[in-house]
Please model this.
Amino acid sequence: MAADGYEKAAIFLSAVGEDVAAKILRNLDADVIGKISSYMAKIKTNDRSAVEGVFQEVSEKIEAGAIQLGGEEYVKKILTKGLGNDDAEKILEMVEKESPFDSLKWVNPRTLSNFLVTEHPQTIALILCFLEPEQAAEVMLTLPEHLRGDVALRVAETERIPESALEDIEEVLKVQLDVGKGRESKTFHGTKVIAEILNQCERSTEQSILEKIEEENSEIAEAIRELMLVFDDIEKIDDKGIQMILKEVSTEDLSLALKGASNSLKEKIFSNMSQRAVKILKEEMETKGPVRVSDVEKAQRNIINIARKLEEEGLIVIAGRGKEELIE
Model:
């Protein structure tokens, strides 16, 4: 007996993995999910021929053009169906206005690194300026070590990217990543950009890059350090700010992060927690035993990111950042 549409969907979703299947099911109507789920529960895990048959059918339909993958009209139909015509039009207008450099945020960091490694360090630096700090840090980490310091210094020295340089970068992106055009000169605070990138890097990478920058320009290295937020800076936050951070930090991250903290910082944290919470936290730290440095650093970066977010929102103040004085 030939499989119907729901059974084929069940076979397909069972084969693509839990994460992908969950994302697809979230976008379906409840009654459709129910029908597909009932078939999924009955599927034999060893029925390889059924899986191959479904994937073959999907492949043939794609080749014949029976399944539309993307495109402006396709996106418009989906948005209109879900949001109505007016809202769909507004979203499409926003997409059309997106700069080609904004499109970089959708590119896998390793893919970016693979083609950037053959480009001039100045081109690499300028492209990193357009990325989110976390994405740029991943790209930086995958670059050859001998390039990192040079690229980081060039980012730090960037204040403005002229239109001519943007044209060159666009040409690189167009050839390598099929990104369109949209020229307009850009201004940057380079030291702030590289400080945010280094905040997302592992401690050893961060220190290595800063040392190389210092060899070339000690003033820029110092300016970057002033703008960087490190875990020890948490101690400079007032009690109210510490309490706001603790509300957003998981016990797992806190117990790991404090493994590598100074005694004074630990006491600062403990003093802003209830006795019962401190007891639970200390017990968890003790039961963990020895932990990997990389796990501690990752947990500390998670807390730093929370502190930075709260600072950017104006909810907390970190004393001494950028040598700015505070008035009581």
